What we know:
This protein is an alpha+beta fold. The protein has one domain: Lipocalin, CATH 2.40.128.280. 21% of the residues lie in helices and 40% in strands. The chain has an eight-stranded antiparallel beta barrel. A hairpin with a 6-residue loop joins strand 4 and strand 5. The two termini are 35 Å apart.
Amino acid sequence: MSSTRESLKSRLLTLIAGYNAGQSEAPDTADVEHLVQTLATLSPIPEPTHHLSEVTGSWETLYAVFGQGRSKSKSHQDDSTLSLQSFRAFPDNPIHVKQLIQEIGETPNTYNNVVLFEAAEAPVQGTIIIHGTYEPDPEDPRRFQVVFYSAEIRGREGATDADLRKAFGFPDDFALKRDFKPARFWSDVVYLDEAIRINLGGMGGRYVLERRSEPAITL
Length: 219
C-alpha cells in the first residue's frame, strides 16, 4: 500500500509542479480528481479530527479548484482582486496573487486563509488574512466545520499601512481590518500525511496543500 500511495502522490505532485512552473497547461481536472479520490482511500491518517496535531500548522496551497463547474484550476500565481480574496470586505482593486496559504491552530481553534499579493498598479507587497475558526464535526472524523468572520490587509516586504492605502487609492482613515457576515463552510481532509494534505470543500472545491517549513504568519 505504501508504494502505491507514494506513486500516486508523486504523479499528482508532478502534474501540479509542471503547471505552477509554467511548463504545462492546467492539469485535466478528471485526472486530478481520479488521483485525489484514489489517494483518499489510502490516507495514512484517515481520521484527521482525531489527530489535530497532524493537521495544524502552516500549509501552502499547491493546487486549487474553487468549486466544481465554477472556476478553473489555479496555479500559485493568478490575477485577482481584493474583493474576490476577502469575501467582498474590501473594494474591487486588482492584485496579483503570489501565494495562497492556510494556517490552522489547535489552541485556539484558528482557521485562517492567507493571501500573499502584489498591488497591480504599484510595487507594493501585502497580505490578506481571512480570519476564521473551526470545530471538528462529531459525526465525521474527516470534516471541519469552519466559520470565517473578518478580513485584514497587512503590508509585507517593508510596506506600511500608509503604503497600502496609497497603492489602492484609499483615504488615510480607511480601515484595513473589517468584519463581515460570518460565512460558514465545511471542509473534509480526505488525505493527510506528514507533508501533504488534500481537502474537499463544501462548495465543491478541491485543494492540494504542502506543509511549509517557514514560520507561520498568523498563528
